[in-house]
Design a protein that fits this description.
About 25% of the residues lie in helices and about 25% in strands. It has one domain: Beta-grasp domain (Ubiquitin-like (UB roll), Roll), CATH 3.10.20.30. The termini are far apart. The protein has 3 helices and 5 strands; from the N terminus they run βαβααβββ. It has about 80 residues and is an alpha+beta fold. The longest helix is centred in the middle third of the chain and has 9 residues.
Length: about 80
């Protein structure tokens, strides 16, 4: 699965994207974020306030409770504001 990071999430992690193979217990975006947070201090810092995160699975905006089974791509980003 390809995980994409945007804005300050990307800055804190230090990566724009990474390929991961989450374990079977990772069923939702929230599970994925929890699992990713344990990957290192940058990930932990980026995911400390989950209420400030949004996600897309295979380019469709979803809630953090959305499933990730079979997903090719998950994007994680802060809320988007208009201008």
């Amino acid at each position: 699965m390809r995980v994409l990071y945007f804005a300050w999430v990307r800055e804190r992690i230090g990566l724009a994207e990474e390929e991961v193979s989450p374990p079977a217990f990772v069923e939702t975006v929230a599970d994925l974020i929890e699992w990713l947070a344990a990957r290192g201090p940058g990930h932990a810092e980026a995911f400390v306030d989950r209420a400030r995160l949004r996600a897309a699975v295979d380019q469709d905006f979803v809630g953090l409770d959305a499933g990730v089974a079979g997903a090719q791509e998950v994007a994680i980003f802060p809320p988007v504001t208009g201008g």
